[in-house]
Each structure stands twice: as C-alpha cells, then as structure tokens.
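**Reference record**
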Amino acid sequence: MPTQGMKQRLRDYPRVMGIVNINDDSFSGDGTLNIDQALAQAIQMAKDGADIIDVGAESARTNREAIAVREEIDRLLPFLDAFGAACEEAEPRDDSQIWPPLISVNTWRPEIVEAVLQAGRVDIINDIGGLTEDTNARLCFEYDAALLIMHTVGEPKIAHTEEVYEDIWESLEHFFVDRLNRARRIGLSDDQIILDPGIDFAKQRDDNLRIYRELERLQRYDLPVLLPISRKTVIGEVLGIEDPSRRDAGTVACLVRGLVARADIFRVHNVKAVADSVRVIAAIQRESLALG
C-alpha cells in the first residue's frame, strides 16, 4: 500500500496489529523458526481481523544476545516473499478491514531495514530502537514506507529496567518533538509516521500506568498512535500473573482504555479476541451516535 493516504486509513477505524515472531525466544511463548508455521499464524490472524501483521525475527528481550544480521534477514525474507501469495487465498473478515493486511517489520538495525525494504511488500518499519540516528528514517523516505517511532531510552537488547523519570510525560513529549523534527527534516510526511509510547520499554509500573491514564495527550501530534497492549509486564504486575499467555483479559482492558483515548492501532497476540472486542465497541459507539 502506498503511504499516501495511510494516515487517514489507519485512523478511520480502530486497527488491529497481529504479532508474528519468527524466533524461538518470544516472551509470550508463541514464536517459531518454521516459516510455514509463521505464515499459517499470520494468515489466521488476517482471517481473524488483523489489519496489520507485525513480523519480527529477533526477540526484543534484553537478557539475550542480538542475533547475527544475516540470520535475521534470512528469517524474514522467506516470510515476506510468501505472505502476499498466501493472502490471495484468504478473504477479509469484513469491509472495515484493511486488505490485504499491511506488513510491518519489527527491527532496529539499518542493515535489516534496508534488506526488507529492498525486497518489497513491507509497508511499515516498526523501529524499536527509538530512532537514535537517522538512517532508518532516511530508508523509509527512500522506499516510501511508514516509520513507527517508539519511545525508549538507550540501545535495544540492553536492559533499562532501572530507568527513573521525574516525569514520564515530559520525557515522552521531549522525545517525540525531537524525533518528529528529525523525521520531517528528512522528508517524511504525516502519512509516514506512527507514534508508540513504548509501554514496558525502559519504564516502571507506575510510568506505564500513567501513560495509559493520560493517553489522550498523544492526540496533540495529530498522528496515528499505536498502543502495544498485549500481555505486557505491567498487566502481569497488576494482576499478579507471571505467565504472559494468561494476560489476555488484562489486554482487553487496556484496549478499552486505548479506544476511549482515541488510539488507532492495537498490537496484540490474540487477534480474534481483540478484533471481536473492537467490532462490538465500534458498533455500540455508532449506535450511540445515531441515537444522540
């Protein structure tokens, strides 16, 4: 999908991003190194209502070494090559769904970004590195891809669990002003930029909860907002649940908060549960407007 008009398309209905992990180290335990299995997961997510598939080949877990650049590329390219053809044999869930689903690649190293953009069929680069330098933004401009800018501090794959903020929102706002200035100087348009507050990345429990509580503040940028809600550590801390796969009810609670705050994209493992919830809530909201 060309990026022209992407901003409106992402904001005209709540969008669901399904998570596909082509690795054997996913914190949620759903990763696979088998490309056929990863492809089957992605197609099922598309059938369940995913508007975007976010595929990553390296776990973001910070207590693991980064995998080799070549290994990450070799995991991603076969999936990207096969996904488009596989979608031709499936059908959208309903008329509101983006079809075929957009493809987002979750990575941070410019070598991987360039390789997947050269290969084609990639709509969004989900840069978990926080855009600490400009190369990934320049590559998105060159290849007409969207860039998802996530708030974090420090380098990926290094734990920042002790990070303390005087005011988490002051950090977020300073960060986004700086990164947006960089991206726009390079030439990225508002159709090519998505913001992510980076839940659980270099943040404490209270930081995460305050972000959810005051999420409307991100509307000041008038850009699509992605909310990573799925099975997050903060949910486990609130509920006392260590197993991430048992946090889906808490995930839906975060979805509801995000919808109230007008977030646009919800990144999840359990696409069907969240897509079903979105459809019901959207129907209620439309009925309320009709009665109003």
Summary: The chain has a mean pLDDT of 91. The radius of gyration is 18 Å. The chain has one domain: 6-291.
